[in-house]
Amino acid sequence: MAADAGSPRVLLLTSGPLDVGDGEEAELALGLAQAMPEVDHFWFKRGRDGPAAAWRGRSVPKVSRNGAPGLPERLQLAAVGARLARRADLVHAVLSIGPGFPAFSRLWRPLLHGRPVLHTVPGVSDPTLLARSRPLGHTVALSEVTARALGAAGFGEVPVIGPMIEPDEWQLRPRSVREPPIVLATAHHDPGGGAYEAIGAAAVAARAGARFQLILAVQGRPGQRVDPLEQALRARAAQEGLHASEVLGSVEDLPGLLAVSDIVLHLPRALGGRQDVPFTVLKALATGRPVILSDIPQFAPLKDAVVRAPAADAHRAGHLLLQLLDRPWWWDKLAERGRATVEERFGPEQFRSAYAALYRNLLP
């Protein structure tokens, strides 16, 4: 049922306008609008055209010195969000807990005049921030690890609702026939963000005789100078003998890149506040691409849909890569498991039903 004049009005509150945003917050928020057309969602936008037909509301510019949602941005969000919240029956905040969140959480609730709030937490950049933060309202986490941390910090009982992947948008694809095969490594430029770990693992596999091309898709953070960081990665890859490697920044055509890739490496030592199960990993699994992950607690929900190596163990990750490249039957088995896991655990019906139940409980 599409939203109409009698539909509940829900303000989706994110740290920036959704028509120019990307990352976990924006993708989660847009997924909510897509999955629940019976709800009249509205949100901040900067451009003239909204990101989806369900858009309601008006443009609210975001003040930012470096693109990061720090304290000035959180204060603006508090003031403007409180004003717009008066038009809503429910406020659904999709906000990570970063440096500006503690002050925001203390200032904002008194401005809402009793409006109910649901807060989905995509990630926590630093667990020490939780001691200075206050719940915005009923809180939802994306993994059991984050839910336990939030619960221990006084956020109450925190349910877990995983992100949504639309299977029709991320269709299962046959294995690439490209030679040499492509190994796609996804990472961030953060220390321990997985880029150097992927290079190390690829070098181990190459020295053991594996033939492949390594492509590094490494995302920068707001405020990072990515050019020297990318140059350093190219130098390390060349030093390890991976001369055909490519280092990409932001990827505009992720479906196309996954289609030509054979295996995905995602080997962070820590998530650093990112979403617990990264969207890129889930999209790779939906596409039928086996994924090698570092064995950290946040990835436990994926169970046997992926293969894991101990964090920072380049030797083990490299030999897993070698085996996957050499064993087509194992590749096929993992491709089937990955797709099935996304459909069963991260599909739109599960996502929609979980949030619809919360909305019913919180709406006046």
UniProtKB/TrEMBL annotation:
Entry keyword annotation includes Transferase: yes
Keyword tags: Glycosyltransferase, Transferase
Coiled coil: none
Gene3D superfamilies linked to this entry: Glycogen Phosphorylase B (3.40.50.2000)
Highest rank taxon of the organism: Bacteria
Entry's Gene Ontology molecular function annotations: glycosyltransferase activity
Key word Transferase present: yes
One Pfam family here: Glyco_trans_1_4
PANTHER family, sorted: D-INOSITOL 3-PHOSPHATE GLYCOSYLTRANSFERASE, GLYCOSYLTRANSFERASE
Protein name: D-inositol 3-phosphate glycosyltransferase
